[in-house]
Design a protein that fits this description.
Two copies of one chain form a homodimer.
Chain A: E1 12-16, E2 20-21, E3 27-28, E4 31-38, E5 48-52, E6 78-79, E7 84-85, E8 90-94, E9 109-110, E10 115-116, H1 126-139, E11 145-151, H2 153-164, E12 169-175, H3 183-197, H4 215-229, H5 232-238, H6 258-273, H7 276-288, H8 297-300, E13 307-313, H9 321-333, E14 338-343, H10 351-354, H11 356-367, E15 383-384, H12 389-399, E16 403-407, E17 413-418, H13 419-428, H14 433-436, E18 444-445, H15 450-459, E19 464-468, E20 474-479, H16 480-487
Parallel strand pairs in A: 5-8, 5-11, 6-7, 11-12, 12-13, 13-14, 15-16, 18-19
Antiparallel strand pairs in A: 1-4, 2-3, 4-8, 9-10, 16-17, 19-20
Amino acid sequence: MNDESVGIVETKYLNIEEPVLLDSGKALNNVTVAYETYGELNKEKSNAILICHALTGDAHAAGWHEGDKKPGWWEIVIGPGKAIDTERYFVICSNVLGGCKGTTGPSSINPQTGKEYGLEFPVITIRDMVNVQKKLVEYFNITQLYAIIGGSMGGMQVLEWMVSYPKMMKKAMPIATAAMSYPQQIAFNAVGRQSIFSDPNWNGGNYYHLDEIPKNGLSLARMIAHITYLSDESMDIKFGRGLQDKDEISYDFTVDFQVESYLKHQGETFVKRFDANSYLYITKAVDLFDLSLNGSLIDGFKNVEAKVEVLSVDSDWLYPTEQSTEILTALNANDVDASFSEIKSNYGHDAFLLEKGQLNFILSKFLTSNVVTDVMKEVVVTIKSDADVREAANLMLDKQVTHIPVVSDDNELTGIVTSWDLSKSIALNTNLLKDIMTTNVKYCYATDSIDVVARMMSEHDISSLPVVDEDMKVLGIITTDQISHLLS
Amino acid sequence: MNDESVGIVETKYLNIEEPVLLDSGKALNNVTVAYETYGELNKEKSNAILICHALTGDAHAAGWHEGDKKPGWWEIVIGPGKAIDTERYFVICSNVLGGCKGTTGPSSINPQTGKEYGLEFPVITIRDMVNVQKKLVEYFNITQLYAIIGGSMGGMQVLEWMVSYPKMMKKAMPIATAAMSYPQQIAFNAVGRQSIFSDPNWNGGNYYHLDEIPKNGLSLARMIAHITYLSDESMDIKFGRGLQDKDEISYDFTVDFQVESYLKHQGETFVKRFDANSYLYITKAVDLFDLSLNGSLIDGFKNVEAKVEVLSVDSDWLYPTEQSTEILTALNANDVDASFSEIKSNYGHDAFLLEKGQLNFILSKFLTSNVVTDVMKEVVVTIKSDADVREAANLMLDKQVTHIPVVSDDNELTGIVTSWDLSKSIALNTNLLKDIMTTNVKYCYATDSIDVVARMMSEHDISSLPVVDEDMKVLGIITTDQISHLLS
């Protein structure tokens, strides 16, 4: 275990009371979501980051389960002082719908039959996965996530969130992914499914109570997929034509090369941790994924509001960089605040799980709030300047705020009134807001640097500052609490 | 059937009397080679081109088998007037050792047991395949092939020929191939084999008399491999996300996308024409292929003498261009006359079977003999100038030549003596060669253009011309017969 880890963690479970409606038109009852969280949710519930896992991942993104030899799957970027800093952010990761790591999937018990679903489980989509994640986010009473981040199929979930719930995140980072499954990707998934179907032990999906599980088929599916996660260069560096446990080729069909042995091992260990039916459902969800609308990705992204960074890996041939720049282009066409970075790596697709240095740098730069808009509260209580003091007092009590921007009939900022001003009104014996409000009011713009604004607030001993646009219209308010929390 | 086809052809069979010794140390008895030939072998046996087929190809490279709906696999480049012009060249193509298309392989009868070999068949190598091809070439009494050409695994055979029998070809063109199998290529082959091993109907290779053959496993292997033969771009153009026989996705595990249906079809038709055990042996031979010597490809290619053109496909990710330029670099380092071309195509690896225009252009340019060295006869009879006329006459009779270059003691060209000169000696009543030989002799260099040389020979009415190096040493002889045959 290392110093920067979140340490020992546990997977928790949320039972969703209401039926989950699916894209297929069907519904699932008694859905359970397995999830983990790291860090603390702040009072404003504004520091939550949702992490979305890839095809065969799980809720255990960071830290250690008691007794485990390996940490969570994204330990390299999640933890105190890392890019996804658990001393600053509240990190949530849940197992996807259809999975086999605690969230309801085909190996779960169908409440209607009392037996495992098997192929009775409905075909699900990436959007269905996201809808279940949304229930979890709502369970935490979070109305807007600070960020959603994920790679590969996790990146598809990020994109789906951006499109389906555009107001529910400030930032989004889809990594090593695509806005739709392309035929080569579908082809590899289809062959993987075929290898499961072809295994007699699969038995039409009913194998949970049999002596044998379809391990040959699932293992083959994993071997095929695993090739696509690596680059030819990384395989060359890692294996070359090295022989496995022999000095000379043996002219038979035992394993000759290290790469064969490695793949076989990947297949064999995978079947111990994954359910064949889950593999069918999840790869199918990936194949069905397509965010284009009427054949246009620009149309598909037209409602996106998040600040987005698209990230790809130069040696990834499964989700090549072109498919990331396609996302970027469609976002740009919609005037979304979108940027793009490319990880330089010879690891291929798997680089998003491995390139610690580059990932921490890019994630950290993207997540660090450096302009006012990243931390300001957007829903802001204002009061007209012709209002009276009693009105202001009631508003403060009602909305639990200590600072209220005062605006003209045109909604332009004209001053600010604080609880201290109100107490002043008693001494001055006035009921008129304009007698006590501060008219020489400080303000800032949404695009101002947090550093600069924080310095100004500190110099003038201000704890709350209105954020305005160029016409002096109030856009939001920023408090030292928000700043100190995020710059801590 | 089209005008430029060789028309109706038949596969023939050669039985190799002596045992074929294999790289493994084992030997195979009673080996049969299935082959086809197109065009006529010339008198000098200098116009033979050997075509080497890929993984699942066969001897039927061109023309039509009686009643067939499709021509041979390389019909686009082989035929009258095409690049591999059957009016000019004698084209040979044979099924590889280990195959299932007429040449001895695991589905053949083992003469020792009277039953199919199955896994009793010895593991073979690309060199073993080439050695069997060599028996066929020798059967035609061909001592030097004009060219050896092949793509993919066929390209490996070309490279093996160049290295193992450097004097047995004038030209060689390895296409879309590599000088060794790299780990990603091995990985795909290994997974293909695994899918056959995993099929219960494979039954340890003994399925020839059973009701079921391992069609699921073989079909899967083919589906996996087929993905690697196409580029993502070609799949995109061909299929996109088009649905198969439905207007909407059906939220079940039936085939949704055209690409799935296509791959399934590829798998299903493949099992009707190919033997699962052959697939094991041939992919294993490919995996074992490695022409490097002590880890160096430069060392591996040190004996190559052929004029080589290395050809790759820009969108081929199974045998990417880098692996072709690696071959080129190693050849260049050995001062081999080697050049390189790249087919521009979005077809991926399969482009070597499809890009008719580019292939015909590149092949034709490469095959057309345009310098003297390409057509000259290298074994040349010479005579010393102090010899007598009787000696010359005997030599002409013995070697069946009409022109003998006359050389000094240092082997420098000093003249030429022809049968016409000899008849002159009778009139002049002299027995001294120097009295009758032509001393004002015309000659050419090995690197001279055939066109220029042909024009000179025509102008001076010369039918036979010595080819010399810069020191006037005789390298060979070129005749109008050779030129007219190759420029026809």
